[in-house]
Design goal:
Blueprint: H1 2-18, H2 22-32, H3 38-66, H4 72-110, H5 122-147, H6 151-186, H7 190-211
Helix pairs in contact: 1-6, 2-4, 2-6, 2-7, 3-5, 3-6, 4-5, 4-7
């Protein structure tokens, strides 16, 4: 029993550390860089964690019940999807933000009313979490299959690992949103710099992620 609790405790700690991966931080920064609220940033991290943990549990149930090891080729496809997603989101946000600024400028000139900006949809974070969960499932399932013999303990391990990643990503989303929330209130023009910088970094990390496969 002590061994099981130690294993589950390790899973929680690894879950906390899991969200610190460069690709995870990069993709959540593409969302929170546009946020003007800590609450919104926390919710984005929460939705990411729910999607991430949900797909891990589903994958874990399939893998543990069949003792199926995810092939390396499929694992690489999942990882490549993460890189492509980072490049896509970064590019989309950069061009979308420039378009939004142009529209805002024209609205103020023609209609003399402020533009409310682009709303962040939580379902995006949820699906991004699913993609990240698939990408990390191969390595996690291999560890579980080689160290955990009980299907119940394996699923519990994944759930606790997921809980750690949810808490960690929510906290990291909060931290990443700080520059945007604080600085843009005093220096509104700096929003464009933050958005461009975070999304350019996301694109570079996406390219490196694909290249490293």
């Amino acid at each position: 029993m002590l061994e099981i609790f130690s294993l589950l405790g390790l899973g929680f700690l690894l879950g906390l550390e899991h969200s610190l991966n460069a690709d995870h931080l990069a993709v959540i920064s593409t969302i929170t860089s546009k946020s003007n609220s800590f609450n919104k940033a926390l919710v984005e991290g929460l939705y990411w964690g729910i999607g991430h943990t949900g797909i891990l549990i589903i994958t874990g149930m399939i893998v543990l019940s069949s003792h199926f090891i995810i092939p390396e080729k499929i694992a690489n496809i999942f990882e490549m999807t993460v890189g492509i997603m980072l490049i896509f989101l970064g590019t989309k946000n950069i061009f979308g933000y420039k378009k939004n600024l142009l529209h805002k400028h024209e609205s103020e000139k023609v209609h003399a009313h402020p533009h409310k900006g682009v709303h962040i949809h939580h379902h995006k974070s949820f699906w991004i979490g699913i993609v990240h969960g698939l990408a990390g499932s191969a390595a996690l399932m291999l560890i579980i299959l080689t160290t955990i013999k009980s299907t119940t303990v394996g699923i519990l391990y994944i759930a606790i690992f997921g809980l750690g990643s949810i808490l960690s990503m929510s906290f990291m989303s909060f931290l990443i949103s700080m520059p945007s929330v604080f600085l843009t209130k005093k220096f509104p023009k700096i929003q464009s710099t933050i958005t461009l910088a975070t999304n350019m970094i996301a694109i570079l990390i996406g390219i490196r992620h694909i290249y490293s496969l």
